[in-house]
Structure prediction request, 215 residues.
Amino acid sequence: MIKHHPNPSLLLAFTQGQLAASLSIAISTHMDHCQTCRHQVLALQETSAQCLDIDNAELEEWDNDEMIAAITDDDFEVHPKQSLPIQLNIKGTDYTLPQALQSVGLSSWLKLGKLARARIDLNEGEVHTNLLHIEKGGTIPLHTHKGFELTVLLAGKFNDEHGEYVPGDFIWLNDTNTHSPTTETGCLCLTVANDSMHFVQGLSKALNPIGKLIY
Ligand SMILES: [Zn+2]
Prediction:
């Protein structure tokens, strides 16, 4: 069962379209798995739709002809985008990427030991979004975070000091959290982070390539 959800202020910002693409994708992906958050977002959308009705009443004072001309502008055509689910096969396991990732660019995979990541091309500066695959038996050494690190588990399972995570879990960590994720089955995650991780055990020089790979 999913135990980790976006907090209410994130869901509100998502509903109002105020989030960066990386966080919107992460929340949409969580909602694919989580009925509770889908219902909350629907309720928030209904509330904001009622607010819009008030705004529309004010619009009637505008020049109606001009407004209708703008709405029915013939040059503006919308073609529904037909995208097929993106299937990935990583180390013999098939994965279907979430709907929110169907139309974004994905870089080639970089691999290091049991870890592999592909960058999702969103152009958000220091905020990097990745697909991270950990092969069965893989571990990320004990670390904390200089900034924030958001993980949405897409498939498989992993554990850390705080428990076990299942697909859909939305795990938001910062510099107050230390953990070492490990997976028996292998897993695929969506990660969003705004700085590299900080290893707290072992030779950080030796672990730096892992940190760079994951961020
Ligand atoms: Zn949820």
Q: What stands out?
A: The pocket of zinc ion is lined by residues 5, 30, 34, 36-37 (CB under 6 Å). The chain has one domain: 1-215.
